[in-house]
Amino acid sequence: MDLHYFLSWKVALLLLLAPCGLQCMSVHVLNEEPVHVMPGKQLFLRAQIEHGPLEEVSSVTWEREPETGMTHERVTLATCPGRSLKCAGTRPNVHVNMEQQETTLEMNAYEAADGGVYTLTVTDHRGAKTTAQCIVREYEEVHHVSVSINASHSTLVCGEAWGTDPHFSWLHERAAITNSVGRVSKDGTKLLVTKTPICGHFTCVVSNELGHSSATYTAAPCEAEGRGTIAAVVCPIFLLLFGGVLAFLLWRRHWHSNRGERLHEHLDDTI
Ligand SMILES: *[C@@H]1O[C@H](CO)[C@@H](O)[C@H](O)[C@H]1NC(C)=O
User: Fold this and answer.
1) Interval between CA 199 and ligand 1 midpoint (Å)
2) DSSP letters along 153-172, please?
3) What residue ranges are annotated as transmembrane (predicted)?
4) For ligand 1, atom 13: residue with the closest CA
5) May I ask the CATH class of domain 24-138?
6) Residue nearest to atom 9 of ligand 1 (CA)
7) Contacts of residue 112, Cβ cutoff 8 Å, sequence gap at least 6
8) What is the atom index within ligand 1 of the atom nearest the CA of 152?
9) What is the pTM of this model?
10) Which of 29, 66, 79, 247 has the fewest CB atoms within 10 Å distance of its CB?
């Protein structure tokens, strides 16, 4: 009787100490989703397992299934069964590790086909399963960039069809955009053109860690400015040439008259 009383007190105390009760196993993947992996590089997933004082992890399984498509076939990548939780991978480039409250999955030489939804299943001592999922995708280079114009709003829009973590920048006639040309939106995808009329070549460059791709919108040539620039360059050259010739003529006249005077003086002396 005493023993029974003691045990029930112990259970009550444990319940008080564990606010979520006896069943509070939780699993979280700690990577930020979606996880992007460069081809040929390493995929590293980390998950945290939390459980109540009376719970015990009896097995851990990492699986993968395609993110899209008809076949939702799950492939087991590794399991860590039994009390020791010694993990066994099903392929040579996968290593899974299990510690007290953490499990990690390492996959070397990642390929596009390794993308998908990764599911981590933790089974407790009574067979109850808790799962966490994480989307893994290949880090893709930027391609198929295009630029279109929204004429009514004097805006150029840079559309980027594919690519991971795109970073946008704009050029006008291959030079950075100045305030006299336009303003780039905060996310970089749009250019509000303040220059009127809209003229010249506008290029949108989209880049990420694997490289860059660009597209150019060609408006009518900037004629007025073109002529202005030519005039601005050619006029000073003409003025300089004209000034130079004038100075030379003046100098020559001066020299000749000086020489004439000196000749006179010489003649005077000899006479
Ligand atoms: C032009 O931009 C405005 C404002 O963003 C938008 O409401 C409008 O639909 C756009 N027009 C075209 C043709 O895309």
Assistant:
1) 20
2) GTEEEEEEEE-SS-EEEEEE
3) 230-251
4) 150
5) mainly beta
6) 150
7) 39, 138
8) 1
9) 0.65
10) 247
* Tokens 């829009």, residue located: 157
Query: Domain residue spans in the chain?
Result: 24-138, 143-218
Residue among 148, 153, 156, 191 to mutate when testing ligand 1 (max atoms within 8 A of CB):
153
Q: What are phi and psi of 127, to 5 degrees?
A: 95, 0
Please, what is the average pLDDT of the chain? Answer: 84
Residues with CB under 6 A from ligand 1: 150, 152-153
Tokens of 255: 């020299």
Q: Which residue has a Cα nearest atom 3 of ligand 1?
A: 153
Sequence-ordered list of residues with C-beta below 8 angstroms from that of 110, at least 6 positions apart, any chain: 37, 38, 39, 40, 41, 42, 43, 138
Q: Which atom belonging to ligand 1 lies closest to the Cα atom of 148? A: 14
Pocket test for ligand 1, best of 150, 155, 193 (most atoms within 8 A of CB): 150
Average pLDDT (91-105) is 91
Q: What is the distance in A from the centroid of ligand 1 to the CA of 157?
A: 10
Separation in Å, CA 56 to CA 8, 22, 24, 92, 101? 21, 11, 11, 29, 11
Architecture of the CATH domain 143-218? Sandwich (2.60)
List residues bridging with 43 in a β-sheet: 107
- Ligand 1 centroid–CA 193 distance in Å is 14
* Residue where the block lists tokens 């590089």: 41
First to last CA, the chain: 158
